[in-house]
């Protein structure tokens, strides 16, 4: 079991695009908002996993992740996960000692771009790159599980 | 991915108790009835798994199962799974070429005893042992996921 501590921000401009490389993520959820936790199926290239996350308390969240066969993930995404699926390009951008993940959403969430950084401690002080904008940590609308039910195009 | 084909029955009398040995199962669910599938966490001795099952169609059901660390299962059962948990002794009983699983439920489901047999083909003809009673295949009240929300003691 891990505990995820992360902060989430909107992004400004396009400069971040040239600062890292991206991979295509396809993921979906087996749970709905009524459940106390989320169960996510994710496929990135030929790597796949199931991730179980508890409720967010502050900016901490219990997380259990298990690698699974890519074929299982494809079948669960197609037949079991709620629609729409979340499809996004994830850019990894190194800034100082931190790795930022910038998610550029597609499909029904096109237009939304969110930057996340994982911290080792909730009190950790971070330097914000100049392309990082308004903080949205803890705003449930930006949870990927929420975007699968209320996509950005419907906000 | 597997497909589970099973039939489920109530049991008669106590003779089945002497026909096999049992293990204690502790399991819980991360999903609710509103979800199209169930996600189960199960712990048996020091063996644990996460199992994802699709909707039941006839007596077939898609099933994906992954071994996980027992410590993860304990933490998820205690903190993330819906209550009450399902606690039962499972007896394995060989009859002819079939292995019957008899679940004797405890806690809020005490008094309920159910026998299941897994088939290789939906049309397979089976001989019912004399301790097997009324068939309840497909009756959703007997799904373990349902018993976690509407335990037998509340029927």
UniProtKB/TrEMBL annotation, chains A, B:
InterPro entries: CYTH-like_dom_sf, CYTH_domain, NeuTTM/CthTTM-like. CDD domains: CYTH-like_CthTTM-like_1 (cd07891). PROSITE patterns: CYTH. Residues 2-149 form the CYTH domain. This is CYTH domain-containing protein. The lineage of its organism: Bacteria, Bacillati, Cyanobacteriota, Cyanophyceae, Nodosilineales.
């Amino acid at each position: 079991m891990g505990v995820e501590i992360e902060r989430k921000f909107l992004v400004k401009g396009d400069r971040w695009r040239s600062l890292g490389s991206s991979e295509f993520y396809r993921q979906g959820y087996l749970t709905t908002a009524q459940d106390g936790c989320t169960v996510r199926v994710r496929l990135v290239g030929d790597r796949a996993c199931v991730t179980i996350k508890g409720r967010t308390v502050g900016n901490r969240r219990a997380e259990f992740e298990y690698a699974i066969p890519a074929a299982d993930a494809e079948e669960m995404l197609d037949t079991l996960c709620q629609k729409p699926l979340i499809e996004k390009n994830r850019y990894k951008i190194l800034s100082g000692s931190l790795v930022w993940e910038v998610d550029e959403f597609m499909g029904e969430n096109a237009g939304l771009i969110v930057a996340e950084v994982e911290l080792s401690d909730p009190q950790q002080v971070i330097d914000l790159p100049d392309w990082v904008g308004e903080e949205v940590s803890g705003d449930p609308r930006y949870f990927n599980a929420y975007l699968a039910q209320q996509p950005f195009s419907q906000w």
